[in-house]
Amino acid sequence: MLNDLQQKKKQIAVVGLGYVGLPVALEFARQFRVIGYDIDPERVAMLQRSEDPSQAVSLEAFHGTDITFTANPDDLKGAHFFVVAVPTPVDEYKVPDLKPLQRASEAIGRALKPGDYVIYESTVYPGCTEDDCLPILKKQSGLKPGRDFKLGYSPERINPGDKIHTLPDILKVVSGNDEEAAQTIAEIYGKIIRAGIYIAPTIKVAEAAKVIENVQRDLNISLMNELAIIFDKLGIDTQEVIRAAATKWNFLPFTPGLVGGHCIGIDPYYLLYKARQVGYDPQVINSGRRINDGMPAYVATKLVQMLLQREKNPRQAKVLVMGLTFKENIADIRNSKVADLIRELMKYAINVHIVDPHASPNEVAHEYRLTLMDKPSDQYDAVIVAVAHDEYRTLDVAYFKSLMNGSPILLDLKALYNVTKEDGVEYWRL
């Protein structure tokens, strides 16, 4: 397979061209012929113009690549090595929504030929690749796995917005349905990954490894969120506590905050779902999720308390929220907990204005039915800095005071600023 790919006798197809799939497709396209497939024709049209709709990949990243972008599933028939990088969300009940994965598997199954490889990168619960995806491939193709085609799983580890830990510089875990598959997959990924390849013994091990990476981070942040709530009641600055504790060599300096996005805030529900399927109800993971999901309401309640302490009626208050994306310096608004915070504020009839230099107004309106302002107005009763965009890091107290009326209130959810009582601003941070 590797020789045929290197000689460009065979092609790689990447299915799903979002934050994960596009960087994978472009990196492979520096070495091999690649078909980039996505079900969204508008996204494909932009990619054909070397424009990333997500604003995560630069124009230069498209240069020197041998890639064809398409929204036609029939074009997948020209590929022999398939990489699946579609979203794996949850539904309104926090149950895994496998529809994108199922649709991708159906499209690939119809294009599958003897000798082909199918590798899944989407984050799933252990067993999903073999128990949920493989039967679809078999049904659609009429082929026998192992004998006619190979199956693998290689969890994505892309960190959106991170310019240091890019795809080639992150160690890649790979796995296959047999030793031959694992070795071949490792060889092919090894051509684009500088950091090295780790071959997991089974597909289930690789799936489990990925999901616990994000479960562990979710739990660590939930611990800091709970500590922040406790310390706030005690009148102690959580950031100063973390700074002091971090002087010990084995302390892990996680920080409190809103946990959103398509990974950390979603993946634990996949493991919770699978655990309950086998008769175990996880206590720690569930508790961590409950704490993190409750932080938007906690912050909203805190602001209302601060308004009331200054004899400001929340129903007559106007509040500016700065930042809506799920993390800093990206355009991705999926599962943004800032949107949850805004909804919590609106429950108190607070008039909320929103600005974000990276988010798309159209996407915000479509996803959350919220309106982004081009710029702040003035005379706000409070300002909430919710996302640590670079544009916000250099702002000073004078700027925030210029936006607010008497008794200004500043909530700094990312602990970006050092504000003292002498600054004349009521300041609070997680």
**What is the overall shape?**
elongated
Terminal CA distance reads 52 Å
Total beta-strand segments? 13
Radius of gyration: 24 Å
The secondary-structure class comes to alpha/beta
Fraction in beta strands: 5-15%
Strand order of the largest sheet: 3-2-1-4-5-6-7-8
Low-confidence stretches: none
Mean pLDDT across all amino acids: 95
Instruction: Count the DSSP helices.
Output: 15
Query: What sequence of helices (H) and strands (E) makes up the elements?
Result: HEHEHEEHEHEEHEHHHHHEHEHEHHEE
Helix content: 25-40%
How would you characterize the largest beta sheet?
8 strands, mixed
Commentary on this structure:
The chain is α/β, with parallel strands linked by helices. The protein contains 15 helices and 13 strands. It has helices at residues 2-6, 21-28, 41-48, 99-111, 128-141, 179-190, 203-234, 238-245, 267-277, 284-293, 295-309, 337-347, 361-368, 390-393, 397-403; strands spanning 12-15, 34-37, 67-70, 81-84, 117-120, 150-153, 172-176, 197-199, 318-322, 351-355, 380-385, 404-412, 426-429. The strands form two sheets. Strands 3-2-1-4-5-6-7-8 form an eight-stranded mixed sheet, with helices on both faces. α11 crosses α12. The model has no long low-confidence stretch (mean pLDDT 95).
